[in-house]
Design brief:
- This protein is mainly α.
- It has two domains: about 180 residues, no CATH class; about 240 residues, MetI-like fold.
- Helices cover about 70% and strands about 0% of the residues.
- The protein contains 19 helices and two strands.
- The protein has a two-stranded antiparallel ribbon.
- It starts with a helix and ends in a 6-residue tail after the last helix.
């Protein structure tokens, strides 16, 4: 995590150098290189690279046609996300209400962000055009080889084959990941909720007001106290869910892998059966079993252990313990399988040497097995912790975030940030708050991942591992 500010600072420092570099190209280049600053592809066409030059020119024409007809309009609209509200007018002749066309804040925001992303992509292509023109000029002046279309196509299947392979995935990431992510983040800075729902109503920018409300600087103190409570439980849940599954899975793998244990494959298969059953089926079945009228309470009453049903899922503290215990049912087998694979790859010579030196089983575990397993599985542990922060399935299908509480704003005592976000989105249609919660979840997950991984042996001593 400490590396990021340094990298960001270096990237910012490179901007003036890059601008100075293009200024030097303009000053030192010939007429056609300078013309490439105005007409894309001019330098390539001058050096008889017609296909690439015409491609640059086509990109310029298409972009400016789009930008002047649509892009610049939506970028300008980003200032207030629309101003013309859809109105309802009674048509006497038809006897119906008609609606005048107004702005749609959601489309304005989406199309505006898209226009900005396309603008940055165009700038990257534009700068590539300038570099191509200058490099072609230098090659012609120095008597070097100017790549032909055939040369460039050949390079895309050889030394630049990685660019060919990454083009479609990179485009998909921009369309299906970057664009929705930026859109979601910007929603956090608006007042988009059910009272400001396009197209009948518009939403607009409110700055950091939503963040202030969530952190306790606004008027809704219940909201901020709910956030603190759910955030605290989310971290407690993630910690216990990760530790219990990992520790018990490791112990189970060690016991099954122990010398003298017969039918190892049978025992592994039995525990893996919980993975074979769809998780939501197991969780819904557990929810029925643990309800106040479920089979567990009925059985306990019949054998005389209880006189009143145990509120496994309706008592706040008991519900939290229950979801942690049930999570072991679906999580331990994964840890067992991973640890089993690692145990089978620990050199037997290490154990033989330790036995000759008189090491006890406890010493062998603490000095050989545990360090080896931890070294290999640290990234897995971090992934599991972050995954448990966002573990929607276990909480929602088992307890639905309940029991609901009057001292929580639209939340329950077993709600995680992710399930609270879902409840606020689907129940209240409070998209602005849901977006802020999503950002908070990301910040917690990213901060933990970067902070912990950069300080683990898996990162710092990777080259020493054999």
């Amino acid at each position: 995590m400490a590396r990021l500010p340094g990298r960001a600072a270096r990237a910012v420092k490179r901007i003036p150098d890059a601008l100075a570099g293009y200024a030097r190209i303009f000053a030192r280049g010939d007429f056609f290189t300078r013309l490439s600053f105005l007409i894309m592809g001019a330098g390539c066409i001058r050096r008889r690279r017609f296909a690439k030059g015409l491609l640059y020119l086509a990109v310029q024409l298409v972009f400016w046609f789009y930008f002047l007809n649509s892009g610049i309009y939506y970028i300008a609209k980003l200032k207030n996300l629309g101003s013309n509200v859809q109105t309802e007018i009674w048509n006497e002749d038809k006897g119906i209400f008609e609606y005048t066309k107004g702005d749609n804040s959601m489309l304005v925001l989406l199309y505006g962000i898209t226009a900005l992303i396309l603008l940055f992509v165009y700038l990257a292509i534009y700068l590539s055009n300038v570099r191509d023109a200058y490099n072609s000029e230098r090659a012609a002046r120095d008597g070097g080889h100017i790549p032909t279309l055939r040369d460039e196509l050949y390079s895309l299947t050889n030394e630049n084959f990685h660019k060919t392979l990454l083009f479609v995935p990179s485009l998909a990431v921009i369309i299906f990941t970057v664009l929705p992510l930026v859109f979601m983040v910007t929603i956090a800075f608006t007042n988009y909720d059910r009272f400001h729902m396009p197209p009948g109503n518009l939403f607009t920018w409110v700055g950091f007001e939503n963040f202030r409300s969530l952190l306790g600087f606004g008027e809704n103190k219940l909201l901020s106290s709910t956030f603190r409570g759910i955030l605290g439980w989310t971290l407690v849940w993630a910690l216990f869910a990760t530790i219990t599954n990992y520790t018990l899975g490791m112990i189970l793998a060690i016991l099954i892998n122990k010398r003298g244990i017969k039918y190892k494959k049978f025992f592994r298969t039995i525990f893996v059966l919980t993975i074979a059953i769809p998780q939501f089926v197991s969780l819904m079945f557990m929810r029925i079993l643990l309800s106040e009228t479920g089979l567990v309470n009925v059985f306990l009453e019949q054998i005389g252990l209880i006189s009143q049903p145990v509120r496994f899922l309706t008592d706040a503290n008991l519900a939290r313990i229950t979801v942690i215990v049930v999570n072991m049912w679906v999580g331990i087998p994964y840890s067992m399988l991973i640890t089993t694979g690692i145990l089978l790859n620990i050199p037997e010579d290490l154990y033989e040497a330790s036995r000759i030196d008189g090491a006890s089983p406890v010493v062998q575990f603490t000095k050989i097995t545990l360090p080896y397993v931890l070294f290999v599985t640290t990234p897995y542990l971090i992934t599991q912790f972050v995954g448990n922060i966002n573990n929607f399935n276990v909480i929602w299908f088992l307890s639905s975030g309940g029991p609901m509480s009057g001292d929580y704003y639209q939340g329950g005592k077993t709600d995680l940030l992710i399930t609270w976000l879902y409840r606020i989105t689907t129940g209240e249609q409070n998209y602005k708050l849901a977006s802020v919660i999503g950002i908070a979840t990301f910040v917690v997950s990213a901060a933990f991942s970067l902070l912990v991984y950069n300080r683990t042996a898996s990162e710092n001593k990777e080259g020493d591992f054999q």
